Amino acid sequence: MNLQLNAFTVFLAIAAVGFLILMISLFFGGIFDHFEGGVDDHGGPGFFSTRVISVFVTAFGAFGAIATHYGLNPLAASTVGFGGGVVLATPVLLFARFLYSQQASSESRAADLVGQTGRVIVTIPAGGVGQVRCRIGEELIDKIARTRQGESIPENTSVRVEEVLGETVIVARQ
């Protein structure tokens, strides 16, 4: 078998490898995340994200193959491939960053609770623990609570969070 290796074949092979990596990353999620610098300083996907690079490589190979088919030499076809890769990878990058920016976290940090006003929802007995509910933004957070001096605070009393110790908050009457 005589394998003819020409520019068209090379560009098609590049496109096939890029497409294969794209399919693997789409079906298996962050399988390549350990090998990439895919997150930029703002926490969103960067240019070196697996999906962006694989779209670029696929487009580079495909546009290069098309340019070779129409008679361009390998250098000119590579320039066309590079341009096509940039043109197709840029919207993928922008769309990925848009999607990333739309994410919201329901997790609030414990430090956000300090100084917040809450309401006792389970009586805090003398020397024991109860439960308080605080609102941070639109989120209601329930935490196990106790007082610093060990005094009792009845249900439905307004309190202020003074300190957070792990999953427990230290509260005082308001």
Explain this structure.
This protein has 174 residues and is of the alpha+beta class. The chain has helices spanning 7-27, 50-69, 74-101; strands at 117-122, 130-136, 139-147, 158-165, 168-173. It is rod-shaped, with a radius of gyration of 29 Å. A hairpin with a 2-residue loop joins strand 2 (130-136) and strand 3. Helix 1 (7-27) packs antiparallel against helix 2 (50-69) and helix 2 packs antiparallel against helix 3 (74-101). Helix content is 40%, strand content 21%. It has 2 domains: 7-101, no CATH class; 110-173, OB fold (Dihydrolipoamide Acetyltransferase, E2P) (Beta Barrel). The chain starts with 6 loop residues before the first helix and ends with a strand. The protein has a 5-stranded mixed beta barrel.
Keywords:
174 residues; alpha+beta; 3 helices; rod-shaped
Number of strands: 5
Low-confidence stretches: 36-41
Largest sheet: 5 strands, mixed, barrel
Our Rg estimate from Cα atoms comes to 29 Å
Gap from first CA to last CA: 87 Å
Topology record:
Blueprint: H1 7-27, H2 50-69, H3 74-101, E1 117-122, E2 130-136, E3 139-147, E4 158-165, E5 168-173
What's this, in brief?
It is built from three helices and five strands; from the N terminus they run αααβββββ. It has 174 residues and is of the alpha+beta class.
